[in-house]
Amino acid sequence: MTLADDLWRPEWPAPRSVKAFQTTRAGGVSVGAYASFNLGAHCGDEGEAVTRNRRHLEALTGMPAQPQWLRQVHGRRVVELPDPDVEPDADGCWTAQPGVACAVLTADCLPVLICDTDGSCVAAAHAGWRGLADGVLEATVAALPVPADRLVAWIGAAIGPRAFEIGPEVRQRFADDDARAAAAFVPGAGDRWYGDLFALARLRLGRCGVDRIYGGGVCTYSDARTWYSFRRDGRCGRMASLIWIDPGV
Question: How many Å apart are CA 77 and CA 80, to the nearest integer?
């Protein structure tokens, strides 16, 4: 990934018509625990600050319009955008309409962006460990109207494997689903484990036929200047990961 203008730009072989970014925590107007480019409307920040940040996001990225934001619930529901609900309960979204932006908000969970090689459809998924275990990535791939072998995926910044400490029940849940997932965990103190969400996402994407997977490895927890991290800070803002088809290309 390359960083410029307070945005991470994926380095992946997406078509020229596909635009994709992940924001950092820099460049906005929020203050205190939310400083400064918080885009989450449900994490305790002042509403006016979030509104101003979202307007700045539109100008910064050149989006044709604001995304239809999701009310993320750590599940596996995926909606096609535009959706009739103002803020649908979902953790994944996709569209084939140029100019419609798919977006997810994160502050340690995995953001995964997907497009097809022809640029005919795009998707975004929010994958915390619960959503990942429940199959939100598989549901996102299945929702797209193209074969999985035509898809390209990019994994954004999330909590890294040296910081994502979990209990044995989480490791067991993934291992029960796929024995290969056990390799994504290393022992911690006592009965604790450290999990590699990036590796788990690659395993699950590959299992459903997506073999061109980029990104991953950038840890939100370990870089407080660049990223929000809920596990590190508790009260904090949210970054956005966005993807759309440029109607002018």
Answer: 10
pLDDT at 5: 55
Could you tell me the pLDDT band of residue 4, with boundaries at 50, 70 and 90? low
Cβ–Cβ < 8 Å for 154, 215:
yes
Cα 203 to Cα 183: distance, rounded to the nearest angstrom: 11
Strand ranges inside 75-219, DSSP E: 78-80, 92-95, 102-106, 110-116, 122-127, 151-155, 165-166, 185-187, 193-195, 212-215
- Tell me phi and psi for residue 72, to 5 degrees: -80, 135
In a 3-state reduction of DSSP, which class is residue 109?
A: coil
The length of the chain is 249
**Which domains, from first to last, does the chain contain?**
2-158+210-245 (3.60.140.10)
Whether 184 contacts 194, CB under 8 Å: no
Contact criterion met (CB below 8 Å) for 177 and 215:
no
Residues 149-169: pLDDT tens digits? 999 999 999 999 999 999 999
Amino acid at 199: A
Question: Residue 82 and residue 151: Cα distance in Å, rounded?
Answer: 21
> pTM for the full model?
0.97
Structure tokens at 189: 């103190």
How is residue 239 written in tokens? 């970054």
Q: What is the pLDDT of residues 223-248, one digit of tens each?
A: 999 999 999 999 999 999 999 999 98
